[in-house]
Write a structure and sequence with these properties.
alpha+beta; Aminopeptidase; five-stranded mixed sheet; GNAT_dom; Bact_Acetyltransf
Length: about 150
């Protein structure tokens, strides 16, 4: 049976294992322990609008989602940026990502969020097939600017 819950201090080993898998997959395997420690503290301490949810399949923790809840200029309702959604490869194809997004949608409805949004790689065809079924694609381009460069 699937269980989705907000991360708690005792979840650090499972969260870190999944986060490191995610980082390795996306080419960020060089993330320092100090950054990982600080991210975990941000998630737990509550002074940042960053949250982590973990998904268990009844035997082990197989997925994580990071979300940032923030204000929006077009509404007084908050919006949710789903920054990370990761399911360990051995657990994919069993509806885990769908369960995560459905869970966040229920949380958003109960907390009055205006919307949940996320981005995905153009090469993430499996993810896009899921997202096309449950959400509306926006016609936007995303730009990154490093202010320190």
């Amino acid at each position: 049976m699937l269980q989705i819950r907000k991360a708690e201090p005792a979840d650090r080993p499972d969260w870190e294992r999944l986060w490191r898998e995610n980082c390795l997959h996306f080419g960020a395997e060089g993330m320092s322990d100090a950054v990982i420690d600080a991210l975990w503290q941000r998630i737990l301490e509550g002074s940042h609008p960053m949250y982590a949810w973990l998904l268990s399949d009844g035997e082990e923790t197989v997925g994580l989602a990071h979300a940032i809840i923030h204000p929006h200029t077009f509404t007084l309702r908050s919006v949710c940026y789903l920054e990370d959604l990761w399911v360990t490869p051995s657990a994919r194809g069993r509806g885990m990502a769908t369960a995560f997004i459905n869970h966040l949608s229920k949380v958003g409805k109960s907390e009055g969020w205006r919307r949940i949004y996320w981005e995905t790689g153009l090469d993430n065809e499996a993810g896009q097939r899921l997202y096309e079924r449950i959400a509306k694609r926006r016609a936007v381009a995303i730009y990154d600017l490093d202010p320190g460069a």
